[in-house]
Amino acid sequence: MKSKILSVLREADGYISGQQLCEELGVSRTAVWKVIEKLKSEGYEIEAVRNRGYRLVESPDVMSKAEIESLIETTWAGNTIQYFPEVDSTNNYAKRVGDETGGHGTLIVSDKQTAGKGRRGRVWESPAGSSIYMSLLLKPDIRPDQASMLTLVMAQSVAKAMREMANVDAKIKWPNDIVLNGKKVCGMLTEMTMEMDYIQSVVIGVGINVNTKHFPKELSHATSLYLETGNIVKRSELIAETMRQFEYYYGKFVEEGDLSGIQEEYNSLLVNRDRDVKVLEPSNEYQGHALGINEMGELIVKKEDGEFVRIYAGEVSVRGIYGYV
What we know:
27% strand; alpha+beta; 9 helices; 7-stranded mixed beta sheet; elongated; 14 strands
């Protein structure tokens, strides 16, 4: 009921009467009043005027199931939300749900992770109160070799959402890091569960540094939306916008069966494009010039000897010659 009341207050053009809320929700005035008081205690600024009703004046940076649900406007992406103040890893939880009852588009969100994961088993620092830790569960009808492209779909979605919500020049470091002014603001981890030769589920984990104000010296390559803009960004709004963008770009991916529908836009945001890069493979390292991605999401690199190579996202890292990007 809380998420519904928030949605109605947000959609209202001015005040909405308590009686109207009662009728829309099928509850008593006392029940509505209790929810309003609860919302006020959580930091929502709600004006109540006799004979006029309630008006939502301001929303704080709240992370809750009700807040996110009240902002989601998608058909399926994030339409089912599971929220936790703390969890070991949103990816781990999403995989557990996927093995049981979780449906396509289920979104797992937590304010804090105790065992956050990055690529190659790295630890992802996940303190409470300032960042986004979320995992989207997908059950796509695609071939296993197409799954890696979903990471690029999410990268495109997050970059676009940041541009819309925070007015920043978000760029993509192939295949899936989001950078601002050459520093990392978001990382992703995609994990696939297979059964025989078909995909059972794909989980895309996303960690975004939103309102973080300080980073330790060992994370000098990291930044946050707050540090880049000086403004607090409402995390739940950014989550909702990311789901809206993902549903759109995922539709293009399904329609084409590859990334040809978003290839041009992705390349326009690719920070590696037209730059010299260092390619780090498990047993090999070389330099080249990055040209952009193809329709399969592979990065096309022209080596120093003139050979063109296609780099598949996986155990390969691509860095700038002189640093992170």
